[in-house]
# Entry
Amino acid sequence: MIAAWWCLPSENTDCKTQTLGYYPLMNVIALRTYWAKPSNARAAIPLKVWYKAAQKAEWTTLVDVKNTFPATDHIAADRMVFAVGGNKWRIVARVDYQARMVFIRWVGHHKAYDKIDATTVQKAAMFELQIIRDDATHEAALAEAERLMDISNRSEADTKRLELLGFLISRYEEETLLGDLPDPIDAIEAMMETRGMTRRDLDAAFGNRATASLVLNRHRALSKEMIRRLADLLHLPESLLLRPYELVRDAG
# Structure
């Protein structure tokens, strides 16, 4: 088990030190918006890395969002556009700081983005809180979550309801839609591209340029200290960089 990042609204405890399992600080939901589209398959690695980085984030302002993803535009009310994968892909999402939720409304190639109205795309049309076990319940939960997000002067009770909905939806989507995560090296390179960084920007995290080259070319494994530094530098969860991966064996 790892330290919890999030607690249910009814819990009166320090979420950051309690060991309950994996709970993100931000609930990123509506993965079906793009995970089920074959046209987005080639963008799987940068999109999944964006997802895990967003889950780790502690966003309370647009400045916080841009600290994680510099190429982000605030387009209307709570809607933002994230440029992902070296500006090849766009993610349109609603960000609710109070409820700690990122609600994905559209994902696609940058050329397709130019043909949509990002301020209204995928606008959703009384959901009983329950464990989500099927697609029909999932769709109903998404509709209720967006209804609550649309309330301008939301009550504390509605905010807690929305936060719990985000937790239930994100857990279901992680189990049914996310699929296999990229290995640590692919994740590092995808986040470098999304943040507009080069290998030289990572030299300090690896200790020196030679070590960086060995690790990124899969000739040397990541150390725990490298993982800690890279997680901080790239705004990634350490758990993503702790995943096992194969090294390249030298000939002879």
User: Anything to note?
Assistant: The radius of gyration is 19 Å. Residues 156-176 form the longest helix (21 residues). The chain is about 40% helix and 10% strand. Residues 1-22 have pLDDT under 50 and may be disordered.
